[in-house]
Every structure is written in structure tokens, then in C-alpha cells.
Amino acid sequence: MSVRIVLVDDHPMVRDGLSALFETIDDCAVVGVASNGEEALRVVREHRPDVTLMDLAMPVMGGVEAIKRLVSHDPGARVVVLTMSDDDASVRAAMRAGARGYLLKDSGQHEVLAAVRAAANGQLVFGATVVPKVVGLLEPGAAAAPFPDLTDREREVLDLLASGLGNQAIARRLDVSSKTVANVISNILPKMGAADRGAAIALARARGLGHLD
What domains can you pick out in the chain, each with its CATH number? Predict the structure, then answer.
């Protein structure tokens, strides 16, 4: 079953580019587009997408206000920000408004696709450069016991990954195959809400992991 997506951006080229990307993906479908936050409210309520990709700086109504209204109307709304703005204030405002993720427009296609799929599954997702700005918004005490959803082996692999080791080096250290390490990392990313390895490493380091003996 396809992930149903609404695209919200005031630049037609961005909307067209994203639409073209999702047309090539079997498990994603764009069901609506909007050029500002006010249009987004109407389009999202009409099409009830699984995920809304939302820019922040738009005319008429910006993304933060649109996110607030969407989440107020439907607390289960899954909005992922896709924007050029990487300043602390924008990130924090979007997350406090109820965004489920935050990516920059220079993210690779695989990051965008991973973020959409993760959000559709109810997960939070952040780009690597955004992670340090989000850590302060995480629940108190999280740093004391980071990533409770991870198994002991997954946390062990993450710690080594955050220490700068590659798959083969981790495999040698744990006496397992490189394929096993790759599989563990694939399981870790969605649990952390990380779009890719870089985001996972940044988030792990921000939580105190990544120190080799």
C-alpha cells in the first residue's frame, strides 16, 4: 500500500521535482500539493495524507503556523519539514508546533524517501545537521538511558559506529560478519528516527555515545 503524500512549498520547481521523484517510487504517491500554509490546511483535510512534506518560509501562512493548526485539528498528523532554514529557532519552532521530522532541502533523495517512510510508520526523523538542534527538545533524562528501543547489541553497534568505526571494523571487534553489522544498522536507523548513518552518528554522539575503550 502506497504512502500518501501532500507536498507544501511555494516554489513550483520544488513541488514538481518532488512529485517527479515520488512518481518513480512504487510505495509512494503524491495525492495533493499546496503553495502555502493556508492552502495546505484545505488540501490536507481533503486528502488526509499519511505524510505532509512542509516548507517553512511561505507567503500567506508559514509552515510553523500551518503545522500547529494541522496538529491541533488532527493530533496524529505526520508532518515532515523540508526547508532551507537550519537555524535553531526554526528547528525548535517546527518541532514544538508538532512536526514529526526536519530535513534540509540539500538532503539526498534517499534521505527524503527514508524520512517519508519513517514518518508514515509513526517515527520521528531528522537530518544529520539538524540532530544537535533537536537534542535539547528531547525528554528530560533521555541522555541517562539513550535510545531505550534499541537492544543491547544494537546499542553496542551504535556506540562503535559513533566512535568512527566502519562496518568491517565493527564486525571484527564484535566477532560477527559485516553483513550482520549492516543488518543491525538498518534496524537501528528507524528506531532512532535517523534518516541515514550520518544522522544516527550525530544523534548518538549528542547523547554521549561514541567513546572507544
Answer: 3-129 (3.40.50.2300), 142-206 (1.10.10.10)
142 vs 98: CA distance, rounded Å? 19
Decide if 31 contacts 51 (C-beta within 8 A).
no
Residue whose C-alpha is closest to residue 107's, from 90, 123, 89, 131: 131
Series of mean pLDDT values for 10-residue runs along the chain (213 residues): 93 94 92 96 96 95 94 91 88 87 89 88 80 61 62 91 91 92 90 79 80 63
Count Cβ neighbours within 10 Å for each residue of 63-98 and write b for 16 or more, e otherwise: bbbbbbbbbeeeeebbbbbbbebbeeebbbbbbebb
Torsion, Cα 112 105 122 87, to 10 degrees, reads 150
Separation of alpha carbons 201 and 188, rounded Å: 11
Please give the pLDDT value at position 141: 47
Beta-strand (E) ranges in the chain?
Answer: 3-8, 28-34, 51-54, 79-83, 101-104, 125-126
